[in-house]
Design brief:
Blueprint: H1 3-6, H2 11-18, E1 23-28, E2 33-38, H3 45-76, H4 80-99, H5 124-130, H6 132-144, H7 149-163, H8 169-183
Antiparallel strand pairs: 1-2
Helix pairs in contact: 2-3, 4-5, 5-6, 6-7, 6-8, 7-8
Length: 189
C-alpha cells in the first residue's frame, strides 16, 4: 500500500496491515470489489472487521488513484488522444451508415456510392503511422490483452513499465518484442 493511503489508516488497521502472518488481496468478481484475507484466525474475524473495512477502503482508494495516474500517463503519450478521436469518428461514421440503411457487410455494398456519408478524413491507422509512440503503446496493450497467460504477462510487464515507470513506449515495445522472441518464439506481433 502506498504511504499516503497507509498513513490515513487507524493505528489498529496499520498494525493489522503490517502483521507478517496476514496477507490481503483486493480483487473483483466483475461487479464488486472484494478483499480476501489470508492467515487471520476465525476467532479474531469479528474483532477486526472494522479494520478490514478500513483497509479495503484504503486499497480501493489506491486502486482508483493508480487508475487515474495511469490514464493521465496514457493521455500524455503523443498520438493517443488523436488515435482515440479517430476511432470515435470512425465509429460515428459507421453508426451513421447503419442509421441510413446501408449494410457494410452486404456483398453488393458499394463504398463509392455518393449517397454514403463522408468517411472521416483521419483514420486510426493514419494516426498510428504518424505517432510511433502511440503505435508502440497500442501494440503493447494488444499483447497485454492476449489470452495466452505467458504472452499476457510479458505485455503487462512492459505496459506497467510505460504507464507506471515512465518508460518510452517505443523502447518498451522493442524490449517486449525481444522478450517475446526469447520466451514465446511462436508468437508474432
Amino acid at each position: 500500500m502506498e504511504k499516503i493511503f497507509f498513513e490515513k489508516l487507524s493505528s489498529e488497521a496499520k498494525a493489522l496491515w503490517l502483521n507478517q502472518n496476514i496477507k490481503f488481496n483486493l480483487f473483483s468478481d466483475g461487479e464488486t470489489d472484494l478483499l480476501a484475507v489470508y492467515g487471520l484466525n476465525k476467532k479474531d474475524q469479528d474483532a477486526v472487521l472494522p479494520y478490514l473495512k478500513e483497509i479495503k477502503a484504503a486499497l480501493l482508494a489506491e486502486k482508483e488513484w493508480n487508475a487515474k495516474r495511469r490514464e493521465k500517463r496514457r493521455e500524455s503519450i503523443p498520438g493517443v488522444r488523436e488515435y482515440r478521436a479517430a476511432i470515435e469518428a470512425l465509429r460515428e461514421w459507421q453508426d451513421q451508415i447503419e442509421e441510413e440503411g446501408f449494410d457494410i457487410e452486404a456483398d453488393d455494398f458499394d463504398p463509392s456510392d455518393p449517397a454514403l456519408p463522408a468517411k472521416p478524413e483521419v483514420l486510426p491507422y493514419m494516426v498510428l503511422n504518424l505517432f510511433p509512440e502511440a503505435y508502440a503503446l497500442m501494440t503493447i496493450e494488444d499483447v497485454a490483452r492476449e489470452s495466452n497467460q505467458k504472452i499476457k504477462e510479458i505485455g503487462n510487464k512492459y505496459l506497467d513499465a510505460v504507464l507506471d515507470d515512465g518508460m518510452d513506449p517505443v523502447e518498451a515495445r522493442k524490449q517486449m518484442e525481444k522478450s517475446l522472441k526469447e520466451n514465446c518464439p511462436y508468437y508474432e506481433i
